[in-house]
Design brief:
homotetramer; 142 residues; 5 strands; 39% strand
Amino acid sequence: MNRNETVSEIRVRYAETDQMGVVYHTHYLVWCEIGRTDHIRSFGQSYAMLERSGVRLAVAEAEIRYAASARYDDVVRIRTRVVRVQSRAVTFAYEIARVDDGVETHMASARTRLVALDDDGAPRTLPSGLKQRLCEALEPAT
Amino acid sequence: MNRNETVSEIRVRYAETDQMGVVYHTHYLVWCEIGRTDHIRSFGQSYAMLERSGVRLAVAEAEIRYAASARYDDVVRIRTRVVRVQSRAVTFAYEIARVDDGVETHMASARTRLVALDDDGAPRTLPSGLKQRLCEALEPAT
Amino acid sequence: MNRNETVSEIRVRYAETDQMGVVYHTHYLVWCEIGRTDHIRSFGQSYAMLERSGVRLAVAEAEIRYAASARYDDVVRIRTRVVRVQSRAVTFAYEIARVDDGVETHMASARTRLVALDDDGAPRTLPSGLKQRLCEALEPAT
Amino acid sequence: MNRNETVSEIRVRYAETDQMGVVYHTHYLVWCEIGRTDHIRSFGQSYAMLERSGVRLAVAEAEIRYAASARYDDVVRIRTRVVRVQSRAVTFAYEIARVDDGVETHMASARTRLVALDDDGAPRTLPSGLKQRLCEALEPAT
């Protein structure tokens, strides 16, 4: 348990399953977005507010490894942490697990690198306040 | 066959199936949107251009009846026609069928009523050019 | 407030928005599914269990009217109630509202008719236990 | 141009956009699936048939880098090739580009590693016929 990670929970929707009987693989990346939204919210500012202030965080790279399959109605826990902060980008890492009777089963690990864009979609630096909070979240737990 | 209807075809994506082994029901309404986009394109103007000119068509009502299930990799045909034109709204009707070896199997019928909005999301009248084309499409085939 | 209605809440995901800046219209019907899943869960049996026991509820008809638009990060409340029970089908009605500081703003009303299918996708009657619970939920609040 | 790559084309759906005004990032991975489905179809057997014969290809790893954004109504071209074949897995690579007046603009590069599963979701070897075709597709163009 990382002191700086945030924890989000969702329940798998029927709409997220596919005919293999498990969750279609791209939805895990939607859950990652929920994780990083909650992580940013823990700084005291929502991503929605951030976007209205003229800063967008666009996914520039994503990678994910699947270990087990989520199923309909599963309770899924997403643990999100900041693993790298650059002047114009931030990288989040995610651990995704199914939770049953309090027991977690690891399902997937993912990383996404996000770049800051202005209202016109041009690259910009991260706002200093956000960058500071991301850097603090990055510090190793003590 | 209605002279004024347009015909669109798509192939069912794996992502559109659910664990019942068939297409998740809301995706048919996404196909309807493809149908009406193609219908508008047949007027010589894309919906994308229309939106850039400051007119949005937002779905105000939708209804759909399912008769049979679409499956992964099916070729699906969407027949789209205009059934009502008002000063600020237009209603499209859709017939959705699976096509196999040239034989159509009816799968669903739907209707959507769209209202015209300006860039700020306020109601507005349909542009006169668009309205005229929609009214012409509405005329009974002779 | 209907004594027999159930209340579900979700937060709008970024993935659910479209370039109009609001939620894409079909996602409201996904939220309805969350509503009816929670409604069935309130009977003491999950829909997931129901499906494993050989009963599927497939959407046969859906209709929805939109009054206002949901936006990213909105908290959305779905009120679900049973409005009709037949031997092989059940109809749910939904009221969808945005909640802000405890104030609800009505966004959409929907209905879906679901038919019972067996494992092979053939029509079947509703299991008697489920039908009884649905009929009880149907009774007017006193 | 690789002799062994296959080319797929889709048109961006409104449902695929998000409020940033561009395609939501996970949909590119859905397009990759369309690419590999077409690639497998080029062997003379559809993935749908493969699945009915008891072989499923489940995504075990995915990575994607975004260079430019796709927009509503863009025509998108997906070039798919096989880059690694193992006894129980195959890795595909994808180049995704927007096409406008015949000119391609690179938008994203992706890779997905798929593992073969049987009907019960247990790992299995690739069927020998499929493996042979994948290995042939892997050969450098001459």
